[in-house]
Amino acid sequence: MMLMTIKKWGNSLATRIPKSVVEAVNLRLDQEVDVKAVNGKIIITPITKKKEYKLEELLGQCKPESMKRSEEDQEWLNTDPVGREIW
Q: What pTM did the predictor assign?
């Protein structure tokens, strides 16, 4: 348990988040957080936004040599459906 002190910051109250806590939850400077009051406790939850990629970006990272089909891949592509597959 860490004891912290609440201080005045403008018209609000604030406290500092110790480095050990920042590292434990992977906080970053200017990161958005969700703040809730639940049963007399303050709960701060980091908001992590996943980066959205465009198909062009992802394909641009692919190396042509990794796109070559193996003999097994080609055999599979040339195989006729054996059940109710839709091609």
A: 0.52
